[in-house]
Specification:
44% of the residues lie in helices and 24% in strands. It is of the alpha+beta class. It has three domains: 193 residues, no CATH class; 72 residues, Immunoglobulin-like, CATH 2.60.40; 78 residues, Immunoglobulin-like, CATH 2.60.40.4070. It has a five-stranded mixed beta sheet, with no helix packed on it. A four-stranded antiparallel beta sheet has the order 5-4-7-8, with no helix packed on it. A three-stranded antiparallel beta sheet has the order 1-3-6, with no helix packed on it. Helix 4 crosses helix 7.
Length: 372
């Protein structure tokens, strides 16, 4: 038990705001635990208020008596009345404001103490029913304590968090309560860690959804052309961000066309934190070089054969019945068909098929149309 004189000096320093920030925080935390100390603070504050109002009343009476003893001229008398009236008005307003602020603070803090006491009682009931019964009996014989703090507008939870944040820098104090009550108060303050567990759980759920599989279909590109394609799709129809090389698109499916042969890095982003990467290759294939062609021999038009440099073979022209009309070789350069048969006679208008037989085994078919 602390010395009564030391406790009285602490209370006076607290009420007169002579404590440092660390000492004030430690003292307010002790008021949360020791109800008898909080009651003494209330008594001292009430005493200071009574003395304050008594001094104001005595001052007013003394000033009134002095005014009656002095004789003034009419001009100075009016100025004096104005001055004295202003002093009395300012003093009265200040006293009413201080009294009103103290009353509101007393009501707010009383409510906070009741809520904290209720939480402590519920926790003690779960841990030890017998201790709860003895505690209830003691509370009936003890007056409720009112905790006085500064005039800030922070709510109870913020105040408790502030006290807890400065706990490591405060000197140790021993109060009249046992260590069990102190541990109970600290466990209430440390409940702010619970939302962090929920956030970790949500992060774990997001990571579990990052294991998606994608279907990748690749089409080869023709030699010396950009005809390759990459199509990326998933089972779920959610929004993805697809990137292949420097190309990028969004949606449930990523389609990339007109790609030349080569290696490509695929990057898929989803759920903000999930990524999928893979490197694929667009192969190079040989593709037919000749396209369907229509021409009019009467205007000296002709079909010129296209083939890879160095390739050799033969080509045969058939009519719609499959009859061979014309035959020649290619590979020497400047091969063409001018719309005549093997004997040099002009063929009638219609559709014909030219088949190119490459020496390496490749075969290419070209649709030709004669118009006149």
């Amino acid at each position: 038990m602390k010395d009564q004189q030391y406790i009285f000096e602490q209370i006076e320093d607290y009420l007169q705001n002579r404590m440092s920030a660390v000492e004030k925080t430690a003292f307010e935390k002790e008021l949360l635990i020791d109800e008898s100390l909080a009651e003494k603070v209330n008594e001292a504050r009430a005493t200071d208020q009574a003395i304050h109002f008594a001094c104001l009343a005595d001052l007013k009476k003394t000033v009134g008596q002095d005014i009656k003893k002095i004789k003034y001229t009419s001009h100075w008398r009016n100025l004096t009345y104005w001055f004295i009236g202003s002093v009395i008005l300012i003093g009265t307003s200040t006293a009413l404001f201080v009294f009103s602020s103290d009353t509101q603070e007393e009501v707010r803090v009383t409510s906070e103490n009741k809520e904290i006491s209720t939480v402590e009682a519920n926790r003690n009931e779960k841990s030890n029913p017998k201790e709860k019964e003895s505690s209830s009996a003691q509370k009936k014989n003890q007056p409720s304590a009112i905790l006085y703090s500064d005039n800030s507008e922070m709510d109870k939870s913020e105040r408790i968090k502030q006290l807890d944040s400065t706990e490591k820098t405060l000197p140790e104090y021993t109060g009249s309560q046992n260590n069990t009550n102190e541990q109970t108060n600290l466990s209430l303050i440390n409940k702010e860690n619970e939302p962090r567990i929920i956030e970790e759980s949500k992060s774990s759920d997001i990571k579990n959804n990052c294991n998606k599989e994608f279907d990748i279909r690749i089409s080869a590109s023709c030699k010396d052309k950009e005809t390759g394609s990459i199509i990326i799709s998933a089972d779920e129809g959610i929004e993805f961000s697809f990137q292949v090389g420097h190309l990028k698109t969004y949606g449930p499916t990523g389609v990339f066309q007109n790609l030349p042969p080569g290696d490509y890095k695929i990057l898929v982003t989803y759920h903000k934190e999930c990524t999928f990467t893979k490197t694929v290759k667009v192969e190079e294939n040989w593709c037919p070089l000749n396209q369907p062609f229509s021409f009019n021999p009467d205007f000296n038009e002709k079909w010129e054969i296209k083939y890879d440099e160095g390739a050799t073979g033969k080509f045969i022209v058939y009519d719609r019945t499959g009859k061979e009309i014309y035959k020649d070789t290619f590979g020497a350069g400047n091969e063409h068909w001018s719309g005549t048969d093997t004997n040099g006679n002009a063929v009638p208008i219609g559709t014909y098929a030219a088949i190119l037989y490459y020496s390496d085994g490749r075969i290419e078919k070209v649709d030709l149309t004669i118009v006149r």
